[in-house]
Amino acid sequence: MHSPITDWPKNEQPREKLRLKGAAALSDAELLAIFLRIGVKGKSAVTLAKDLIHHFGSLPRLLASTPEEFTRVHGVGLSKWSQIQAAYELVKRSLEDGLSQDPIFSSPNHVREFLQAKIGRLPHEVFLCLYLDSSLHLIECDELFRGSITQTAIYPREILKEALSKNASALIVAHNHPSGNPLPSDADQELTKVLESVLQMVDIQLLDHCIVSGSGFFSFSDSGLMNISVKR
Predict the structure, then answer these.
(1) Distance between CA 139 and CA 26 in Å, rounded?
(2) Extents of the domains making up the chain
(3) Under a CB-based contact definition with an 8 Å cutoff, are residues 166 and 137 in contact?
(4) What's the pTM value of the predicted model, to 2 decimals?
(5) Exposure of 206 by Cβ count < 10 A (0-12 exposed, 13-18 middle, 19+ buried)?
(6) Pairwise CA distance, residues 52 & 35, whole Å
(7) Which of 13, 57, 120, 187 has an alpha carbon 20 to 30 Å from 1's alpha carbon atom?
(8) Closest Cα partner for 122 from 99, 158, 140, 148?
């Protein structure tokens, strides 16, 4: 429908549909249209939202867009990009806050959702540490290393130093693969073994090493590649 949204049947207008049926009932384009508010000549906000998603190829790519990339699309400007990024950041912070409120294993998908939102769609590789207390609540999530699109230099001694300074009882480490393939490399497997060994020396347990991509996720723990025994 290319007519103004105000001319649509009331129950088909995105805001009214959200109020009546809940956010889950809306398509990606309808949700995005609520942020856009208005379209351009000949296009409703929903049509413009569909064009944006089509331009970037997917909603995750749109969310990861730079201001320059976003504003190349006719009909949207920096203010719309800023609003969408602010909403996306609120989602990531909400997920992180949930990890500090409840033990990480109380919701099996919570860590995965947080990591995919946090680093899964970045164009460069980053390495995160999730420091956990004795009750497995999140103390802090830190980005320790940032590298090129192909590799990041990871220093186990830096991870150990930070873990001790935060009085962590356990860790989850994670990094992303911008290539899109979340399967571990030989170097990833070797790093996991080294970290396990180093942390065991000071009685800190490495619970998992997660590898994240825009559409994939790999867990060393879930794949049986780590020897952990945590009371869940």
Answers:
(1) 35
(2) 5-75, 91-219
(3) no
(4) 0.68
(5) buried
(6) 12
(7) 57
(8) 148
Question: Could you tell me which residues come within 8 angstroms of residue 85 by beta carbon, excluding any fewer than 6 positions away?
Answer: 63
- Best CA proximity match to 125, nearest among 141, 143, 147: 147
- Alpha carbon 55 to chain centroid, angstroms: 21
Give me the amino acid identity at 151: Q
Structure tokens at 204: 């800190």
Give CA–CA dist 78/84, Å, rounded.
10
Contact (CB, 8 A) for 56 and 65: yes
Closest residue by Cα to residue 138 from 161, 175, 176, 106 = 106
Residue 134 has pLDDT above 70, yes or no: yes
Secondary structure, 3-state, 61-129 = HHHCCCHHHHCCCCCCCHHHHHHHHHHHHHHHHHHHHHHHHCCHHHCCCHHHHHHHHHHCCCCCCEEEE
Fold of the 91-219 domain = Cytidine Deaminase; domain 2 (3.40.140)
Residue type, 219: S
